[in-house]
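Exam revision sheet. Question 4 asks you to relate a sequence to its structure. Input first:
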Amino acid sequence: MACRSGSSSIGSLARLLCELKGKAIISLNGHPAIQECFAAYHIEATDIRYTVGGGRGSDAKEVLIFSWDVQAEPAGLF
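Answer key, structure tokens:
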């Protein structure tokens, strides 16, 4: 998989994921720039609610980014 370069810390994280010898799952905010930066990877999106100190919270999207081909090798505990 090709890594997209970038000058931000997210771009740095994408490059590290590309060079990783093992497997990783990264959970990040589902902002379109995040999804674009990690477009080469399998991404699953989910709805969540961010809260601080038990407040009302706000709805948001979260993405799980997998460093490997999950269709060929599904994620699991063992």
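Marking note for examiners. The first helix runs from residue 9 to 19.
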